[in-house]
Write a structure and sequence with these properties.
Blueprint lengths: L3 E2 L6 H8 L3 H7 L1 E5 L1 H9 L6 E5 L6 H12 L3 E5 L1 H8 L7 E6 L15 E6 L4 H14 L3 E5 L8 H7 L7 E5 L1 H9 L4 E5 L5 E2 L9 E5 L8 H5 L3 E4 L11 H17 L1
Length: 267
């Protein structure tokens, strides 16, 4: 197995990989980074292999990493080794993981989704926190949702923060991105109930008349959903707030509602 060793901070590969920390470069190149053996193993077990595998020299051997390395090489990928300092330069973290992978971004059009694949879907509008986005991907995986649909100007699902927060769910959950004016006609062309987490003219979330396939819509962390978007929903539900807070974190609200819908549809 042939490996390429990188020793200089000014190496073009180092500069390229480092540039992928910025969204504009990820979008221009259609590639992103995944840090750490656990996430890379989740990707591999879901059928995704990196184009390049970059490992720190002098690391301890690991059975999973050995298998990953062999599969990447067999698929025609490139194996690179470098110093821990250079890996930290690439990731921007002083305690960088000992291995990173370079992946192609996935297609995220609505047309690729099979809306009959599951009775429940999560939809996030203008979600700005990559941690929330990653958490919603994890929630999708946990409840067996068909996928996560990102509406309007959401955080980048291929950012290092979102990938890390997804805990591997980026590779197991279908993902789509669209503008509202694209999403609504797509939704209405076939059966599908659009349900909003809302405080406006909403019914209690428990025992609400959910119907499959149910598309749970959660809005921006601070502004919620625009009035026009809520007006298009088939059902608006609310959760009781018994303390001083007037709302839940967007990702938490989505998870709570998803489990309630799941229970209702399974009953």
């Amino acid at each position: 197995m042939t490996r390429k060793h990188i020793t200089g901070f000014s190496n073009p590969t180092v500069k390229y990989l480092r540039s992928l920390r910025d969204k504009k470069h990820r979008k221009r190149t259609g590639q992103f980074l995944v840090e750490g053996l656990r996430l890379l193993e989740d990707a591999r077990s879901s059928g995704y292999l990196p184009r390049e595998l970059v490992m720190a020299e002098g690391r301890e051997r690991h059975e999973l990493l050995d298998r990953l390395e062999a599969e990447v090489a067999a698929a025609g990928g490139e194996i690179l080794t470098t110093t821990p300092d250079i890996l930290s330069k690439i990731t921007g973290k002083s305690n960088s993981q000992s291995v990173i992978g370079l992946f192609d971004e996935f297609a995220t059009g609505l047309a690729q989704l099979d809306r009959s694949a599951a009775p429940i879907w999560l939809v996030a509008q203008d979600l700005r926190d990559p941690g929330n986005l990653g958490t919603m991907l994890r929630s999708c995986d946990a409840v067996g949702a068909g996928g996560l649909i990102l509406i309007d100007d959401c955080a980048d699902p291929f950012s290092a923060e979102a990938v890390r927060a997804s805990m591997g769910a980026l590779f197991t959950v279908a993902l789509a991105q669209a503008r509202w004016e694209e999403f609504l006609p797509w939704l209405r062309c076939e059966p599908g109930q659009l349900v909003a987490a809302s405080l406006r003219d909403a019914v209690p979330y428990r025992a609400a008349p959910y119907a499959a396939p149910c598309f749970l819509l959660v809005g921006n962390e601070s502004q919620g959903l625009p009035d026009a978007y809520e007006a298009e929903c088939d059902l608006r539900v609310t959760m009781p707030m018994k303390g001083r807070a007037d709302s839940l974190n967007a990702a938490v609200a989505g998870a709570v509602l998803a489990y309630e819908v799941l229970a209702a549809l399974d009953s």
